[in-house]
Fold:
Amino acid sequence: MKKLNLKDEQGLAGILELLVVVLVMAVVGFMIWNVHEHRQAATKTSSAVSSEPTTTTATSDTAAATASLNQASSSLDSLNQDLSSVDSVVSDKEGNLSQ
Amino acid sequence: MRVSFKRLILTFLIVAWPAATLAVPSSTDTTTRVAQVQTDRINNLKARADLEITRRLTTLNKMLARLNGTKGRVQKLSTANKTALVAQINTEIAGLTALKTKIDSTTYASITDLMNDVKSIISDYRVYLLIAKKVAIIVAADSTLAAADKFVVMETALTKVINQAKADGKDVVDAQKRYDEVVAKVNDAKAKGTSVETTVLPLQPNDYNENHEVLSTPVADLKASRADLTTAKIDAQTILKDLGAPTTTTK
Structure:
């Protein structure tokens, strides 16, 4: 094996080439990692944005429907009482004055 | 024997004459007694008429107080219906008050004339068979319309739930079928409630005199409206139960 000699022009050029390669690889690696991180973050945000409001909307829709059903049901109870009042109007109070 | 016959005739005259006098009243006495009987009967009828008119005025004034008050079921009445009913009741009160004055102050020539006025307490006013029932029916009709409005609000909310469930991929065929029934039943209840108000509000005592069943159909319609809304309520409960609240949660 040939011993590395910094005074040797060929040896210096070889070391510089190696450093350049390592540097390029490091930059490329960093860029790939960075893009990946950004994508992951974007996916998480997107998923949070898409799932959270949907659930909230669905829950509030059901709650609103239940609340309005309760109100409708209550008004139906009230109607039942009013109809009982109609039946309870005593018609025989009219009396008979023909005698 | 001749003496005995004379005594017999004398005895007869002594005993029978006063009796005969008592038994056969004079024509003057008869007239007086007939007049007295008629006067008594007129007074009794007038007293009874006063009692019946007072009873009706008390009922009408109570209804009026309820309509003009701030409590009770009548508060559900729409302003237009309340105004119409108050006007009708005031007309009845004015009429009965005038009739009472007439009956009390008139010297009736015959029982028949008085009887006609007394009978009009019932036939011209129909306080219990028509007016009291009418107020209760209009209150119930307004109540039907108010309930139908609440159901319409519920329909909108149910639509959102069904649409969301559909978007989530759930089977909404049955829910949609029930929803369609809810809409149909609520519309029917609303139409019936409106029809009852239109029919009943203008009714007058004479309408009842001509047809004693004049209130039967409106009451039946109100009961059918109640059945409609009850079905709508059950359908809505089933829709919400079947589609339910979402089980997925964030985080």
